[in-house]
Protein: Electron transfer flavoprotein subunit alpha/FixB family protein
Organism: Aequitasia blattaphilus
Amino acid sequence: MNLNEYKGVYVYVQQVDNKIDGVALELLGKARDLAKDLDTDVTAVLLGSDVKGLVKKLAQYGADKVILVDDPALKDYRTEPYTHALASIINEFKPEIVLVGATAIGRDLGPLVSARVQTGLTADCTQLDIGDFPIKPMMGKEQQHNQLLMTRPAFGGNTIATIACPDNRPQMATVRPGVMQKIEKIADAEAEVIAYNPGFEENNKYVEIVDVVKSLSNTVDIMDANILVSGGRGVGGPENFYILEELAKAIGGEVSCSRAVVDAGWKPKDLQVGQTGKTVRPNVYFAIGISGAIQHVAGMEEADIIIAINKDETAPIFDVADYGIVGDYKQIVPTLAKSLESI
Ligand code: FAD
């Protein structure tokens, strides 16, 4: 493999029903930083049916080029045609880096595509940089420059591993939603559009989508919330969560929780914040009856303001909190809700 043939940073743009997933815009923002370090450009890969209308938005969020596969075979996500399309694009255009959001779709698509184009993939990254690999020269191992250094928690979050793919291209990563930052929208940006047709005869026949059942939840995704009122085991039981809900209602926030709460069956998994839950970046994050385990903090430390309420003054959550209140939440939270309600 001639590694020098591979150029450009590519971002897979997940869209469902013509709506671009936020992680794709976050990845375009990160791709611009990486492309700048490599002196190359950013290409968005847009797959779908009747999705041309999304090109402008991709340009506004950082794409220099858009490779567009617009085909009825791609109407709803199906593993085989999407894998075929993305793998064909990689084989044809030879990107140096391919980034995919670590969503349910991305976790299906990314590994399959990497296997098909015979390269490595680092899953669930929380940081991406361009640098030297190995980071320190090792005996007998030559240091290679301008490698994609892909960082992710490992061994249950007890260590952070930095992984590279020095011998193959492209360098592929799936990246956690909510970790990277979008750029400010550039209203008048334009992107070059490259229409591509990989052909779908063979890959279109295995799975037929008969019906799509939409999620019935009427709550806001906690990843989109500006204010989160998050409860932990210290809340004491599902029957007490109304206290947090009242605070959330008073200040226009949403309720989320720690894994202990999900494991106990008090709240559903889609409200879990943390390493094995969601990464959130709200303006304000209330951590109530949450101890502040490293796996929880990994999902919320990027919040602008963290307010911790815990009866144990030595709880590690106070190490990451901007404001801390030591005491029983049952006394503190209703008072807080009342005083904030009137603001
Ligand atoms: P606890 O650690 O039990 O803390 C409860 C806190 O409530 C205590 O600090 C206590 O002082 C306080 N408290 C008790 N009563 C009151 C009261 N009346 N008023 C005020 N404070 C009170 N955890 C996550 O959250 N998200 C994850 O994604 C996640 N992923 C994980 C992945 C792996 C591989 C592993 C091994 C663990 C993971 N965990 C995760 C679990 C994590 O290690 C902790 O066990 C968990 O976060 C603890 O939840 P907690 O803070 O709610 O409960």
